[in-house]
Design brief:
Strand content: over 45%
CATH topology: Nuclear Transport Factor 2, Chain: A
Order of helices and strands: HHEEHEEEEE
InterPro entries: DUF4440, NTF2-like_dom_sf
Helix content: 25-40%
CATH class: Alpha Beta
Pfam family, one: DUF4440
Shape: globular
Protein name: Nuclear transport factor 2 family protein
Largest sheet: 7 strands, mixed
Number of strands: 7
Distance between the termini: 39 Å
Length: about 130
């Protein structure tokens, strides 16, 4: 029987796979309707903008990993803290990097979704 932690780990793996494969259909299901992200340089991105990066072909990953993840539960929500490593280009520019990522996950709709995400570059790596 899968534990709740197993469920959250599997959710994170689905998210990383969808990001790596630029699968906007899968990502659309994983992101809450009011999803917001804070990028590595402090800019804000909403759900539509997050998905458009892939639909437009602007963001391409050669590698994308979600590792060293820890979870904390809070009611119908959870916080996932992990490391996102990527080999990527955005509009032809190198955006490789390692980022400490905080995700706020919610189960308000019955299935886990990412409501908010914040990326911070890990010192000594490119900021993306």
């Amino acid at each position: 029987m899968a534990t709740e932690r197993d469920e959250l780990v599997e959710f994170g793996q689905r998210w990383a796979r969808a990001e790596r494969e630029r699968d906007t259909a899968a990502l659309g299901a994983l992101l809450a309707e009011d999803f917001r992200a804070v990028g590595p340089r402090g800019f804000l991105v909403d759900r539509e903008q997050w998905l458009e990066r892939y639909d437009s072909g602007a963001l391409v990953h050669d590698a994308f990993a979600w590792e060293d993840v820890e979870f904390r539960r809070y009611g119908d929500g959870a916080v996932a803290l992990g490391v996102q490593s990527q080999q990527s280009t955005y509009d032809g520019r190198d955006v490789d990097g390692h980022f400490r990522v905080t995700q706020y996950l919610t189960r308000a709709t019955g299935a886990w979704q990412i409501a908010a995400l914040h990326l911070s570059p890990i010192a000594g790596t490119p900021a993306g």
